[in-house]
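Ticket reopened. Same input as before:
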Amino acid sequence: MKILVPVKRVAALEDDFRIRDDGLDVEDEYLSFDLNEWDTFALEQAMLIKEAATAQAGAAVEVVAVTIGPDDADEVLRACLAKGADRAIRVWADAITGSDPIAIARILAAVARRESPGLIFAGAQSADQGHAMTGVALAALLDWPHVAVVTALDYGAGQDRANATRELEGGVLQDVDVACPAVLTIQLGINKPRYASLRAIKQAAAKPIETPTLSELGIGADAIGPAGSASRVRRVYIPEKGRAQLIEGSAAEKAARLAQIIREYKAA
Amino acid sequence: MTVGTILVVAEHRGGELRPVTFELIAAAQGVRGRTGNPGGRVAVAVIGAKAAALADALKVDGVDEILTVETPQAEFDAEVTEGVLGALLAELTPALVLIGHGVDAMGYAAALAARHGLGFATDVFKVDVQAGALVATRGGYGQKVNVELDFPGKATVMLALRAGTFKLEPAPAAPTVRSVAAPSVVSRARFGAFVAPNSAGDVDMASVDFILSVGRGVGEEDKVEQFRELAQTIGATLGCSRPIADSGWLPKSRQVGQSGKTASSCKLYIAMGISGAIQHLAGMKHVDTVVAVNTDANASIFSVAKYGIVGDMFEIAEELKKQFA
Amino acid sequence: MAVESAAVPPEQITRILFEDFAPAAVTLFYLIGFAAIGAFLWGCWVQVRKYRRGQPAPEAAGDLAGRFLRMAGTVLSHRTVERRDPAAGRAHRLIFYGFALLFIGTSIITLQEDILGALFGVKFWYGGFYLWSSLVLDLAGVALIAGLVYMMIRRGWIRPPKLDYARPDRQPGDPDYDRSAYRREDWAFLWTLVIIGLTGFVLEAARLVWLQDRPGVWSTRNWSPVGAALAEAMRAGGLSAGAAGLLRSGLWWFHGLLALAFIALVPRTKVKHIFTAMGSLMVRDPLAAQRLPKLPDDAQDAAAGASAAVGYAKITDLTWKHLLNLDACTKCGRCHEACPARAGGAPLSPRDLILSLREHSNRTLESTLIPGEADLDIHGGRVGQISSETLWSCRTCMACVEICPVAVEHVPIIVQMRRKLVEDGEMDPLLQKTLQTIHKTGNSFGESRRKRGGWAKALPFPVKDARKEPVDVLWFVGDYASFDPRNQKVTQAFARLLHAAGVDFGILYDGESNAGNDVRRVGEEGLYEHLAGSNIAALGAASFKRIVTTDPHSLNTIRNEYPQFGGAWTVSHYTSFLLELVNQGRLKIDARHAYRATYHDPCHLGRFNKEFDAPRELLRRTGCELVDMARSRDNSFCCGAGGGRIWIPDPVGKEKPAQIRVREAAQIEGLELFVVACPKDLTMFEDAVKTTGFEGKIVVKELLELIEECVVAQQVEEVAAA
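Engineering reply: fixed in the latest deploy. New output:
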């Protein structure tokens, strides 16, 4: 069986960032990129199922990583290949610019229809924008059952149901028995993502990354970009700085003020 | 923008309405106030086997109509909720649907939005109407910027609102209650029982008033002990952020945050070496007095703190200990 | 002691071999002798075959003559055996020279009897030559026995801790926890040699008594003084010539058979260290731990894929040189004693690591057929295997490699085994995160590259960007010096000093990445190559005369390892550079301090690069009274941050090496300053001074800060006026 793992190359802001002149995003040069932390857990979960299947000499599990992005997104796919993913797919066209998670999900759905996986593991949210939408939107477009924010999983390759544990507010847990194929969005802490050594990443550079076109995937212009999105960015701005009153001075002076705050609180 | 109906989806668990439900009602009132159409109606939908019982608690000012939808499941089911809401959308054609941004919403909302072509945004903390258009504001790049969104061409927009942002003081009222037939939805998932986290014998972070919390800045397990001692010295309860609990350096019961405890009774919260990830803030930003200690002057924690110290948590801890010697 | 003239011709002043033996007995002896030699040769072949089952070691090839001469010098002088244990050095010299002379003596006799005499009728072992050689050999025998007796006293009574074989990497109850077998072998070796020696003397005495009536025998007895003394005692005790003859016959066979058995067992027991130690010393690499080996080219090859081995996973992955190292170990315990990880309670003893691997290699590689792959795995918890906890405990401080008398390379072996662990992702989660951070940002702090030169903004003068303009001195700053707030102050002090001395210097700003020394020692060779490549490119594009660094770790890797990747420059540590400036008069220091100070030699500056004196000289020039700790210079005790350990949390509740070191310093009466010359030392020791409760009593100071306090202010004014 196949497990499809959509992954995202997320951006972090450096301290001295600036907003672009058009006000619609941050200036490129202040962005530093990485594979989305939630996605590392999703990929690891797929790898664990694959390795369990190999150990039990069962049917082989193929792990396919897919990302939507221009060619610098290849680096996150290489990290996935280095960690043991079998294949990697990247889809991009300029028309995809300005897509929100729903539009991205449409593209992923087209990839999923081509790949026919038995499971899809997406990260519960992305570290940069935190929409928490893509996985579940993808499930709806495929009309698949889905469970979000999964913190534990009991599943063996080829089974037609999976037992997923979702993590609710306050740390409350709930088991959900879901029919497969299904989309599961994976929460942090479900496993221990493996390390990909630089040597492994360099060796992964030799593996091909498939780049199907939008027309090969059967995606029309209205499905992507602003036209296919559920929202539109009007403005990005830096919020007013926090209202914290800064306590200055030497460490001893700061601590003295803090001690005063504590004593005042206790006296009241 | 004319608002025919604003549909609020009540959130409940374990037979009780969750507080975010009332925040949604407050937000709905706010939006209605900003449009030129005070005639718009606010309807609250409550879905589940015990819908009728929960309806009473929803009889508050600001609600025009309560819609109860009885389904076979007492608790949340993603596909059932989606199916019911799909039917309600068809019947009511609301301009705006408000839900709470939480784990339940993450389970169904995007599916509903994708299927029905809704406008949609999550974790929204500000809703406005500008020049007749609905504008939602959420965070971006790890909450370091604000992003304003609008929804051109969307007849219905669904917004998942951040909990703890819109305050409502519920005043009793008498809205109409109408029962709506639930469409039959075969759910392909079976939701089991809720299991509360294991906190045998340890402290309940939700019930203490003075907390000293440590985060990733503490560095290693070895270094947690001195903060335990400091907490004891100053008379606070020791808490932590998620990474500390995940690493096993403190029991999970000490974790404050979205998937940990909300420091609901806390009045003074000292956060040391905590950057202020949104999930942690969810558990403590409501506290009256927050003092944040962090080496990074740009850490998000300072945006919810009353007092800030830009410094090394170990140095400050040392000096603080001397103050109470 | 004149030879009786005329009465006895010189040719008869000799010892007749096999005197009074039946021909059959002589034949029997020779047969047994050949069998013993055959067993010896076969045993040697088994050992050589074992080494050949390892990987090639190209670095150990070439310059055979030079290597041999250096080895001979080391062995003959016993320079490495007497280090830190002069008594053992003296005793072992006695044993070595005693045994060597006796061996030469036997060889001379064999040469005459079995070769020259038998084939050509040439004889020379008689007369004066015979008598002098008898004297020398007697003295050799005394030396041998004296040395052995001291060693027995050492093991039996003195019992130094390093010989007690207690091992920190196993629990009582583990099959290899008990080392009685080793102890038995040790004592068997000592007793066998002693008995051979003693019976040799008794034999000598018995012959004298037996042949007392033959001319030239009794009269020349004093050329064998020990034998003579024993013979006189025997005669006085009433032993008749005939009885002595019987004694001689019996003892002759006992002594002979014991000696032959000893020879046959050489390759199978610790006696083999005679050869393996020499062999190991011959292939010694003086830069073994300072310059680690690159990955073999086929591991880089993408086509080889996952099948190419990275590091040491199986015993057959070790180079033949390392396999030889395992056999050279004499269990002397010096590495065990020196190891800071072990001292801090970690489950690592370099000695026990080597011995475990040796047990593994002996078990698997001495049989005719090599066992299957599953049995060759050297990682794990079984006998002969090394656990990952042990491997991760190492600080790569090279105290073990440096003190080992037989040139065992503990650290390179550990790093090779870590390479496999890293490839498999078996490491502490914090270390994993740090490696990922270094890959992303080029530094271990996770800060943006752009902030690397941020410390320079606080200075009242601009610091040149060496990427943009040529400079005389390129200052490679390093991670900790760039980003750690406490160390940034030291960095700024150095900048001010350079400025005061009028040095034309610059830094690479964001062109600089972590030099990679510790990343390499963690075993992430791929990331190391990436960092080295990046730094070498940046350095190659800049124009400068020399590199100076304030970070000993960077110093080591740039000086010793970057040349492997095409980057060879002159690089100095700030201490030798500043001393140059002071001696040239470009920097003036007044002796303004009168503190009692001690200086902690940083591992990577001292032990790795042999630089001990410049910092001490500078410290003295500041006026401080320097008192060295007991363990200083090459024996300096590591702060515990090396080998990536600064990125790995320490186990809760155990004393850290830095704390042990502070307590050692505190033993110096009236100590006021603990002076360091490395950013990691500064961090570790400031922390340790607090946690050991010496805060306020001992102050940790960076040498740079002391120097800056003593700089003649005039210098600054001169520069400002210029």
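The first strand of chain B starts at residue 5 and ends at 9. Chain B has a mean pLDDT of 90. Please confirm and we'll close it.
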